[in-house]
Amino acid sequence: MGYTDQRFDVNLSILFTELPLLERPAAAAAAGFKAVELWWPWIETPTPDQAELDALKKALDEAGTQLVGLNFYAGQLPGPDRGALSVPGEESDRFRANIDVAADFAASVGCKALNALYGNRVDGVAPALQDELALENLVVAARAADRVGAILLIETLNKPESPLYPLVSAPAGIEIVDKVNEATGLGNAKFLLDIYHLSMNGENLPDVIAEYAAKTGHVQIADNPGRGAPGTGDLPLEELLDLLKNAGYDGWVGLEYKPGDRPSAEAFGWLSN
Ligand SMILES: O=C(O)C(=O)CO
């Protein structure tokens, strides 16, 4: 038990962002990691040119890194958006256009988890309408993920930093997971248990872990306060990851924290302490 027993991957959309996208996999490998995850890298487009997808695949392959998690197109993220799939009109259309592109890219690099951020509430649109659209889009995404042997992740964020995002508690995320599985019958929708976001929401983390570990398909960590590396805040991250392991979760743990005022390569000292 302890950190040495975990399978960590590096989130290349928050760590190593001081480097161009295509240089990040090699930098993660040089820091000792064989697995990485990404938010949708092309925030301006859900359908990048094939050459861009090929270049990212080449960078991952040449670095010897496995992509273990990829977000679908989620609007301007980083930025004001928190997903596109529940936002009627152009954003939902962009999400739909992205589904097969993201699923096919995942298949091409052997990535088995696709994360679908729900999207912010929109002024003047009834929440029920947004939820109806979201379910419709998530069902299509779950089927596409299944086609390439992947799971579909649903992530809760935190209310202070994402006040317009409706999924800001573990039960709210699990409710969507269950609805998608009911609608598809596939069972491949899973919870993305992000310890930082849940702690920012003031949730009882041991209880959440005990209750939802079995429905969890991916885990992400950062310390709180500050969203920095383990040890920079006051979360008992090592103990919480042990609890997850004891509860039966043995998947990837994404390092989704800010490096702070130093190069990302220097933000992993906690692993050898
Ligand atoms: O926006 C965030 O904080 C995320 O975790 C996106 O996946």
Automatic annotation (TrEMBL):
SUPFAM superfamilies: Xylose isomerase-like. Pfam families: AP_endonuc_2. InterPro entries: HyI-like (IPR026040), Sugar_Epim/Isomerase (IPR050417), Xyl_isomerase-like_sf (IPR036237), Xyl_isomerase-like_TIM-brl (IPR013022). Residues 26-272 form the Xylose isomerase-like TIM barrel domain. Keywords: Isomerase. GO terms for molecular function: isomerase activity. Belongs to the hyi family. This is Hydroxypyruvate isomerase. It comes from Streptomyces chryseus.
